[in-house]
Amino acid sequence: MRPHLLRCLVGPLPAAYSECASVGPSSAPRIWGLLVVLPLLLSIAGILAAPAAPAFAANEVVVLTSFPKELFETYKKAFEAATPGTKVIIKQQQTNQGVTYLRETKARPDADIFWASSVDAFLTLKNDGLLDKVMLPADIMARIPPKVADFPIHDPDAHYFGFAISGYGLMWNTRYMQAHKLPAPKEWVDLVNPAYFGHLVMSAPSRSGTTHLTVEVILQAYGWEKGWALLLNAGGNMATITERSFGAPEAVISGQSGIGVVIDFFGLSAIASGQPVDFVYPSLTAVVPASIARVKGGPNAENATRFIAFLLSDPGQTLLFSQEVARLPVVPALYAKGPKGYPNPFQLKLGGVKFDAKLSSSRVNLVNALFDQLVTFRHAELKSAWNAIYQAQAAVAKAKTGGKNVERAEGLLREARTAATVMPIDDKKADKALNDAFKGKAEVKAKQEAEWDAFAKAGYAKARTLAEQALAAAR
Questions:
Q1: Which pLDDT score is estimated for 57?
Q2: Nearest Cα to Cα of residue 345 among 426, 392, 290, 307
Q3: Number of structural domains found in the chain
Q4: Domain range enclosing 152
Q5: In which element (H, E) is residue 197 found?
Q6: Nearest-angstrom CA–CA distance, 430 and 317
Q7: Assigned domain for 34 exists
Q8: Is the pLDDT of residue 47 over 90?
Q9: 260: closest CA among 169, 383, 171?
Q10: CB 270 within 8 A of CB 253
Q11: Angle (nearest 5°) at CA 285 between 186 and 252
């Protein structure tokens, strides 16, 4: 083929047309025909020559988890040692973000394992059809009882498995409490003690699956109205609302705050490492398993099953006693080998709340949004309202002791407390329709949140004004 004819066929497009125009009449029809089909041929060739989609390594297991580094690194090293040649890849995400990620990648999952504390998340993923049913060795399953404190340890349909038992409670810095002359807490209701104003810390439930469960425990223990009143009063006592669950225990351990609302392993691990902290399970709490599941369609299903089986084996369960992890095993027989004084949920009378996981899962988005609008995003106003209430409360008590008539002041104070704890919706309005809207209807969610924000702002301003009036009346 002549050079200028070759340039006509494969040269840059403007130059190619120029070369083709000069090849002569006899060749023109063939050349112009080739120019018509050439782009299609090149397109097909490009597709055939394009690199294939990246293949997943057969010797990997990809774990999506919300757990802290100390925990997942312990299991990563142990599993890789027990299964030479297999590499554990960790993708750390907050629980709610992890659920969203699995939904967004369901067409082509790149994670094999979902591993978190929140039972809500596993129920949601199961209902979405994003978890595989897994059959584990019978000898492993035979050592694990079906329930702990009346709560199922595993999903009855084998879509997720409890690997550690979690309880929810309060941890405090013993030195901080002594320095500020504060009593140690015992119950959730202790969080409303005026003496604790500015000394508490917790994370936002929208940012922490375990904190959402704690909020749900309180709502289910005391009911919607009284539970929210407790949460709003306790929220007013908080020094800060942290973005991640480990922010609360870190603040307590460092002495930035006195008392933290936490999942038990934060307290237990701090105690095990010699930190000046203590921990208590309130009498009204829940004992719920932290779980693990295989992602449906994940690239390394066999390795994922091996990882789950390892967690539930004796070596995997024994690691829960380590200082870095400090969790409660689901195998009762192993507690005889645990550290001295280690809590055994199968013997202790933990619980007090018959936790309804389906209820919690059904309203997770709604409850989290309410907490954010009423507490997290209006925390400054909420704190200011409760500070004014406490000042008025102290003045009324002093005036009453002095024999002064404080009837009007007490009435104003009651109104102030009501304004600071009243909810924009009751449990009947927090129905399935509204919960479903918060799952997928952005316009409904935005409108409702804006109304709740305005409600909170007005309510806390009113509470502060009434408290200031009560203070003046008591003087």
A1: 52
A2: 290
A3: 2
A4: 60-165+288-348
A5: none
A6: 39
A7: yes
A8: no
A9: 171
A10: yes
A11: 50
Across the strands, what pairs with 290?
164
Identify the CA nearest to 306 among candidates 319, 289, 294.
294
Q: Which of residues 298, 321, 348 is at a domain's end?
A: 348
Same domain, 107 and 23: no
CA distance 76 to 56: 19
- Torsion 83-84-87-90 (CA) sign: positive
Would you call 295 helix, strand, or coil by DSSP?
strand
Whether the CB-CB separation of 100 and 133 falls below 8 Å is answered with no
**According to the model, what pLDDT value does residue 273 have?**
87
Same domain, 15 and 95: no
The DSSP secondary-structure symbol of 429 reads T
Whether pLDDT at 16 is above 50:
no
- Residue 18 — pLDDT band, cuts 50, 70, 90? very low
Tokens 């195998």 belong to residue: 331
Query: Longest Cα pair distance anywhere in the chain, in angstroms?
Result: 120
Per the prediction, the chain carries an average pLDDT of 87
Crossing angle of helices 442-474/407-421, nearest 10°? Answer: 160
**What is residue 439's predicted lDDT score, i.e. its pLDDT?**
73
Give the pair of three-digit tokens for residue 415. 């109104």
116 beta partners = 291
Q: What is the pLDDT of residue 13?
A: 38
Would you state the pLDDT for residue 269? 87
Region of poorest pLDDT, from 131-145, 206-220, 348-362: 348-362
Q: Which two structure tokens, joined as six digits, stand for 76?
A: 């990563």
One domain, residues 26 and 83: no
Q: In this structure, what token pair is assigned to residue 458?
A: 């007005």
